């Protein structure tokens, strides 16, 4: 059995976290960011400019609130749709971040959440498992030190890509490996 001596001493904040965030908004930023995104559309800006012109007395025979109502309906419907979509992005992010990875430690393997994986952690992967972060392949159960990785969720290709272990660590025994994080 070989012991991998990796120290986990690094400054806080030196590397980004492994937390997946695809959601666009939070509770405080939803209204301003969503309105900004919606007013980037030319049609919405046109109707806002039209409302401003109609608000000038004597310039328009049509009251300004007559144009404001349809614009408000469009903004509200789009806002509700965006809020619904973003809610499901938050749910999906939480599901991915709560998935478990196996961290190697001297006292045995420990299950940790994907969002807590840090740079320098030694992880054990089994056949068919998803990879929780960018990784360097140190050892493989394959006698030639090969690993086959499917990257369909990254680039859409369904072909398996061959990855080689680093020459310095390819001979390590995967089954009995322990780590010193």
Would you spell out the secondary-structure blueprint of this structure?
Elements: E1 3-5, H1 30-39, H2 42-54, H3 64-97, E2 100-103, E3 110-113, E4 123-124, E5 146-150, H4 152-155, E6 160-164, E7 178-180
Description:
The chain is an alpha+beta fold. It is elongated and about 85 Å long. α1 packs across α3. The model has no long low-confidence stretch (mean pLDDT 85). The chain has a three-stranded antiparallel β-sheet with strand order 3-2-4, with no helix packed on it. It has a two-stranded parallel sheet with strand order 1-7. Helices cover 34% and strands 14% of the residues. 3% of the residues are buried. It folds into two domains: 68 residues; 81 residues, no CATH class.
Shape: elongated
Q: Please tell me the total number of domains.
A: 2
Question: What is the distance, rounded to the nearest whole angstrom, between the alpha carbons of the first and last residues?
Answer: 17 Å
Sheet with the most strands, sense and barrel status? 3 strands, antiparallel
Q: H/E order of the elements?
A: EHHHEEEEHEE
């Amino acid at each position: 059995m070989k012991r991998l001596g990796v120290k986990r001493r690094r400054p806080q904040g030196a590397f980004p976290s492994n937390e997946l965030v695809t959601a666009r908004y939070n509770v405080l930023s939803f209204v301003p960011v969503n309105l900004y995104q919606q007013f980037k559309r030319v049609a919405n800006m046109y109707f806002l400019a039209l409302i401003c012109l109609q608000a000038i007395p004597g310039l328009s025979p049509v009251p300004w609130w007559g144009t404001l109502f349809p614009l408000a309906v469009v903004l509200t419907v789009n806002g509700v749709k965006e809020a619904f979509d973003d809610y499901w992005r938050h749910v999906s992010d939480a599901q991915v971040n709560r998935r478990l990875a196996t961290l190697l430690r001297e006292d045995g393997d420990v299950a940790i959440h994907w969002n807590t994986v840090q740079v320098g952690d030694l992880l054990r992967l089994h056949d068919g498992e998803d990879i929780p972060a960018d990784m360097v392949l140190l050892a493989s159960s394959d006698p030639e030190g090969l690993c086959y990785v499917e990257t369909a969720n990254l680039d859409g290709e369904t072909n398996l890509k061959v990855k080689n272990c680093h020459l310095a660590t390819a001979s390590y025994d995967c089954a009995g490996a322990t780590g010193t994080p």
